[in-house]
Amino acid sequence: MNIERADFVDRVKIFVKAGDGGNGCVSFRREKYVPKGGPDGGDGGNGGFVFLRANPSVSTLIEFVNKRKFMAENGKHGMGKKMKGRNGKDLFIDVPVGTVVKDAVTGEVIADLNEPGKIVCVARGGRGGRGNAHFATSIKQAPLIAERGEKGESRWLELELKILADVGLVGYPNVGKSSLISRISNARPKIANYPFTTLIPNLGVVKYDDFSFVVADIPGLIEGASEGVGLGNVFLRHVERCYLIAHVIDVSGYEREDPVRDYFVIREEMKKYSPFLLEKPEIVVANKIDLIGKEELEKILKRLRDATNREVIPVSAVTGEGIDLLVSKLASIVREMKVEKPERKEEKFVKPSPVWRRLPEKFHLEVVKEDEGYWVVEGENLRVWIERFDLNQRDARLMLLQVLEKNGLNNKLKEAGVKEGDVVRIGDFEFEYRE
């Protein structure tokens, strides 16, 4: 997988908004020879949901650089003859496999889309409002009331791509990681004799007998990466999913003087990023052995083994010496770890229910004086009622006033000092107070 730096984006923020539910309809049956037909207002359709879907054909998050807002379709309003409005179309947003989805405000991890086809709902659509056919009773046979649709959910999300690879190559810049991955796999990264040639992670598939695994070439780290020196440690997140870390060390002495020090500097930067990385299995790859004498090489390899307490495999990415042993070792470790990993049970995706807030029967009311002779009735749960119904509809007003009276509205108005003739506002509806 070769991607230009400008095309590789592994962290973005996007805004998602699910569709609102359609409004219910106030309608009455009108047919020839049926002079007084009953209510037949249909329900509104549900708003569309927003889903994220892991798509293996998507490699980076670059599609979200220029487009950051995604909105699903609203539900259609209900109609007469008990016709339900059409549901809004769900919106599916494809992201790379390995994308971690977080709430951008709280930082909560919503989902880890680490398998092809995995889906997560990130915003639920609002339920459609009920038409007046639902409000008919033996006493009220022609109700002038219908519900508004519920608002769909909205939120800011942070998408973070963590590449899925079995082996992660880490080390200083210019130690030969790119040459190594091009030697052992089908990857063909840019290779040059200067630091930071690799600016993005490169992936390569390695085949060993009947077994294959994926290796990631992580851009070089240097001392101070955790403070943003060089390319920083922004790419270390791609190592988090690897089974095995292959720590590449330049033992030639031409560009790096002390391979043991180099090893521990990189380990310290990994620790600062996440101590969890130090718990991963690791082998040390001593590269560029073609540039050093055999006797000197043996001394360096012994120092590395004694200091790191790791298996050290000497190789030359240029001549190919030691490559077969390295591939065999990597394949053996990865194969063993994949067998040990318990099989995941396939999770069947179930679409959640649309947003629908239950109307509270009892709630606190507050009467606020806005001007001389002008008062406003407020309350958190009162707002839910006001959003649910159109108070221009006669029966909606009567129903709400009955609920408010049960919650002591009249006493609240008197306690606040409302006088006869004063104007009281509830939502967008105003009325003149009478004792």
Low-pLDDT residue spans: 1-7, 189-199
How far apart the termini lie comes to 78 Å
Question: In percent terms, what proportion of residues is strand?
Answer: 15-25%
Which class do the helix and strand fractions yield? alpha/beta
Query: Any guess at the CATH architecture of the largest domain?
Result: 3-Layer(aba) Sandwich
- Provide the CATH topology of the largest domain: Rossmann fold
The structural domain count equals 3
**Strand-and-helix sequence, N→C?**
EEHEEEEEEEHEEEHEHEHEEHHHEE
Helix content: 10-25%
Largest sheet: 6 strands, mixed
Order of the strands making up the biggest sheet: 10-11-9-12-13-14
Mean pLDDT: 86
Tell me the name of the CATH homologous superfamily of the largest domain.
P-loop containing nucleotide triphosphate hydrolases
Total E-strand runs? 18
The number of helical runs is: 8
Shape: elongated
Question: Can you identify the CATH class of the largest domain?
Answer: Alpha Beta
Rg over C-alpha atoms, rounded to the nearest angstrom: 33 Å
Organism: Thermotoga maritima (strain ATCC 43589 / DSM 3109 / JCM 10099 / NBRC 100826 / MSB8)
Binding site for GTP: 171-178, 196-200, 217-220, 287-290, 316-318
Main location: cytoplasm
Protein name: GTPase Obg
